[in-house]
């Protein structure tokens, strides 16, 4: 059933060309814009570029997933699906699988653009950079599925972004290394999944050793499982 749900989501995406273009090309365009901004400022792009390769897929997938899931629920599609022999967890895993497949293409394009065209310097393997970006896109999908249960309109779904996304952007280490943050903020950042994604990306630019990267990915994976579990527990058939 999970595969069938994923196939249905992919077919819907294929019919929505604007969403497909945004999912696949927006991270590449934002990375290119960032490179342009810092083109004449030393090695700043090498420092912040990898972290944003984690951030951009996370944000895009969070927005698209939360709005798309809410639209299915408000239109009654979700209620009709749940009359079939399919569980809430099947639905969420199907959505996660579909967007994970999209994320593979999205992350591959973004990494190829950053490393191949924009000259982003890596010490670790490029394929692992893709793995981190895909994992973070799945994290955005899982959180988007979770928060969609608490929104009644698409506008409300977008409003969850300041609650679930912006604090992570501020505390994940992009603006200031987490080791240099005040103790309380550092403790809060340790509880946020995006911090570990950015740490993994940064590690790939500093060292060819991958042990720390896999540990960070394991932490992000635990957050994905938790978000999907909570999403399955809170998923409603319709929007009241």
SSE diagram, text form:
Elements: H1 2-15, H2 17-37, H3 44-75, H4 77-81, H5 88-117, H6 126-148, H7 154-159, H8 161-164, H9 166-171, H10 183-189, H11 193-206, H12 211-234
Helix pairs in contact: 1-5, 2-3, 2-5, 3-5, 3-6, 3-11, 5-6, 5-12, 6-11, 6-12, 11-12
Q: Can you walk me through this structure?
A:
The two termini are 27 Å apart. The protein is mainly α. The protein is globular, with a radius of gyration of 18 Å. The protein has twelve helices and no strands. The longest helix is centred in the N-terminal third of the chain and has 32 residues. Helices cover 78% and strands 0% of the residues.
Short key terms for the protein model shown above:
240 residues; mainly alpha; 12 helices; 78% helix; 0% strand; globular
- Distinct helical segment count: 12
> Uncertain spans, ≥5 residues at pLDDT below 50?
none
Secondary structure class reads mainly alpha
Describe the largest sheet: none
Radius of gyration: 18 Å
**What percent strand?**
under 5%
Helix-strand sequence: HHHHHHHHHHHH
Annotation, overall tally of beta strands: 0
User: End-to-end span in angstroms?
Assistant: 27 Å
- The percent of residues in helical segments reads over 70%
State the shape.
globular
How confident is the prediction overall: mean pLDDT?
81
Give a summary of the structure in a few sentences.
78% of the residues lie in helices and 0% in strands. With 240 residues, it is mainly alpha-helical.
